[in-house]
Amino acid sequence: MANPVDLVEVWRGELLECVHQGHAVICDDTGEIVNAWGDPAAQIFPRSSCKMIQALPLLESGAGAHLTQEQLALSCASHQGAAIHTDRVGAWLRDLGLTDADFRCGPQVPGDQDARHALIRAQAEPCQIHNNCSGKHAGFLTLNKHLGGGADYEKIDHPVQQMGKAAFEETTGETSPAFGIDGCSAPNHACTVHGLARAMAFFASAHDRSDLRSTAALKLRTAMMAYPELVAGETRACTDLMRAMNGRAAIKTGADGVFVAIVPEKRIGVALKIRDGATRASECVIAAILVSLGVLDPNHPAAIARMTPTLKNWRGITVGRVQPAAALRV
Amino acid sequence: MANPVDLVEVWRGELLECVHQGHAVICDDTGEIVNAWGDPAAQIFPRSSCKMIQALPLLESGAGAHLTQEQLALSCASHQGAAIHTDRVGAWLRDLGLTDADFRCGPQVPGDQDARHALIRAQAEPCQIHNNCSGKHAGFLTLNKHLGGGADYEKIDHPVQQMGKAAFEETTGETSPAFGIDGCSAPNHACTVHGLARAMAFFASAHDRSDLRSTAALKLRTAMMAYPELVAGETRACTDLMRAMNGRAAIKTGADGVFVAIVPEKRIGVALKIRDGATRASECVIAAILVSLGVLDPNHPAAIARMTPTLKNWRGITVGRVQPAAALRV
User: Fold this and answer.
1) Which residues are the signal sequence here (chains A, B) (predicted)?
2) Considering the domain A5-324 in this protein, what is its CATH number?
């Protein structure tokens, strides 16, 4: 088992102020490792980076056959609770004949500034629809209605979650050794960084196959790339980088330093985990890898803002920079 | 030169999800290391953890002879812009015959929720007085008025900053190899973790000496412990832990994973740096070290909340925990 390696450096003036270590794997559609940093066998929680896997049963079951591309993008989203997200999830809930109280994701203050300030000005509390996972949960509720399952759709032994677990283990090619409860109360299954990259390569090569799961994977990755603003939101890395790549890759962040990428033209999947959980580092590494794969222009402002951002202080003065560590600069 | 060591673990369910590495030093008043983790010679930026050092010239010069304990606590503070902070800094500014425009720290959205929401409801922008460093800058302005210096008191070659650098090098016992520009635009000088702990031991043993600098150090550490709510604010680690220790230690956080402690009864100084910059880790480590030194009750709610906090999700369900790594559990 290899150690994590230095992946990201944070400089202030001429001193290296912080370092982020981690693991990353680039995997092809046969499941073989193309390139790796650190330990491909490290066990991680994918967190929200595996939402497109969790959404597979929604389509495979037929429950989501009527859903729009926008709804499919939201089912894979960690959105920031902006009006473009909550309006669509709200309409979806009404289509299901359900209300905010049927969610099990919990209320979350929206990341979107306009939505957050509107709540504060109205002296209102956030609802469950504002939770960044409410699109995923609308997908769970859609599947659950189709199955006729109980209201506790987030429980590990509920059919919705058991179907999600099967899809997860089959696409990662691994038996998950453990699960944790995610921020949104859904189970999150552990896998290796290699396994997560393997699952992404399954999505990346889905257009080569016509089986039910591959068809579902193709629909989901296509929806993510068609509506990058629904997968995250304005100013967010997933949205900005997918827009910059213009259909050449689907990417997804996960809490505590996870990021994945699906690169259809190369039938390649990418997964990475920053050991300390820092988002500034996971964003830097995914951008560096996408540049190295030739699908992200290193000169695009969105690439620069994530891969080699400058650090500015409260007066807007540049005081430092983030950059990929030597292992990623080759 | 030793490598950083694992200091903090973050568990979700039964899987170790994140690890934070770093360096820590406990130093006595002769400058000798009592205990250390990682590399005592690692060069770091202390960031806001050295504000009590930066405030020494304010008292040594005589400029701050008239200041209250509250003002001295604010001069060492990274406050959260609550009314208790901005009211006092505002009055201080008026005493100086100056206005918000004389600050060079830059405007910052206050960390205090009431203050932040009040600005949002008023559709108002934050001012420089809301900057977490405005107390330190009020101290700089007080010293500058005494010196009759130019308005650009934050510049590296300004007498205010040159006096600060001398105090920093003399208390750390090191020639600083580099400086960076901090979030508040003031220079921040690099030192080793050992050097920073040595400076804290100087503060911790100040009551043994009667020289000008030691007298200043004693006044500052006493003010910090007398007004813990002015050094940070409600819900913050510095405030909560200093209250829990009830005068047995002064502590101070710094951005990007730094924390220091001054323990007068043991004439001991502590300094630590989390390599990745995570605050959740620096708080855990400082609490663990203070417990090990016998000045923080491990069963106090404030100690538990920083050293072994549970992680709760959006529905309030416990999903994981933070804990000191093995190296700190001995």
Assistant:
1) none
2) 3.40.710
